[in-house]
Design goal:
alpha/beta; 2 domains; D-Maltodextrin-Binding Protein, domain 2; 3-stranded antiparallel β-sheet; 10-stranded mixed β-sheet; about 25% strand; about 260 residues; 10 helices
């Protein structure tokens, strides 16, 4: 009788344990479908946006397409409203979100992120030929420009030394025009946006080392899709190691901003 009870107990424990340790099939399902469907806002340069012909281009586009190539699957892009992008992911309208998405504690409650693949944040941009400033600590008694209503205004308050003057602009291009004309000394702005401007106008501006504030970007998956997230992460890690991510970064930002050692 005792052996029978023991056998029954072991059987019941095994039965209840099976769902907990069941293999996640998310990558297998994507592999079977032959495609990875990615949600994005297709108007976010330089991460993902449309060129004059309507073709989808950008850093995230190139990186994801390379991941798809290495995994042997097609990448299908699904433009979606950004304000409901997490809900759409969890409603299974697509498999992941890959679109310069900032990793936050609040978002991490609803989705599972990869490790950061780019460290975004607020940066300080100065003239390329200006030798006075080599680090953020050198920004003393300076005239700073920043976009109205942007998070750059909060970042200005985090500078090591308060600026002598803060001038607000309708947009970053106008601030950079004043910087180029030496009417201000520095522009505080978003990292990826700033580097997009710099890449398009080589020899005009440069970024001081370091971030005033950090905002890491990650690829977001449904929390249960662990095998899919793991496969994408492993592929991204290899792309960092073999220099592919650096190559894509230099194409869009004129330098490598994907190396975690530089963050």
């Amino acid at each position: 009788m005792k052996k029978l009870i023991l056998l029954l107990a072991v059987t019941l424990i095994a039965a209840f344990a099976l769902p907990t340790f069941a293999a996640d099939s998310s990558f297998a399902e994507v592999k079977k479908a032959g495609k990875l469907v990615i949600g994005l806002d297709d108007a976010f340069p330089p991460m993902g946006y449309r060129d004059a012909s309507g073709k989808l281009i950008g850093f995230d586009i190139d990186a994801a397409e390379e991941v798809g190539k290495r995994l042997g699957i097609k990448i299908e892009w699904q433009p979606t409203a950004w304000d409901g992008v997490i809900h759409s992911l969890n409603s299974k309208k697509f498999d992941c979100i890959w679109n310069g998405m900032t990793i936050t504690d609040e978002r991490a409650k609803e989705v599972a992120f990869t490790k950061p693949y780019i460290m975004d944040g607020q940066i300080a941009v100065v003239r390329f030929t200006d030798k006075r400033y080599k680090s953020l600590k050198d920004l003393k008694n300076v005239k700073v420009g920043a976009q109205k209503g942007s998070s750059a205004l909060s970042a200005v308050k985090k500078l090591p030394t308060a600026p002598a003057e803060l001038k607000e602009y309708e947009d970053n291009p106008k601030a950079l025009l004043d910087l180029e004309a030496a009417r201000i000394d520095v522009v505080v702005m978003d990292n990826v946006t700033g580097r997009d401007f710099i890449a398009k106008r080589p020899g005009k501006f440069k970024v001081l080392p370091g971030f005033i504030s950090k905002e890491p970007f990650g690829v977001a998956f449904r929390k249960d899709d662990t095998s899919l997230r793991s496969k994408v992460q492993q592929t991204l890690d290899k792309m960092v190691k073999d220099g592919t991510m650096a190559k894509i970064s230099r194409k869009w930002f004129a330098e490598d901003i994907t190396n975690p050692k530089k963050w």
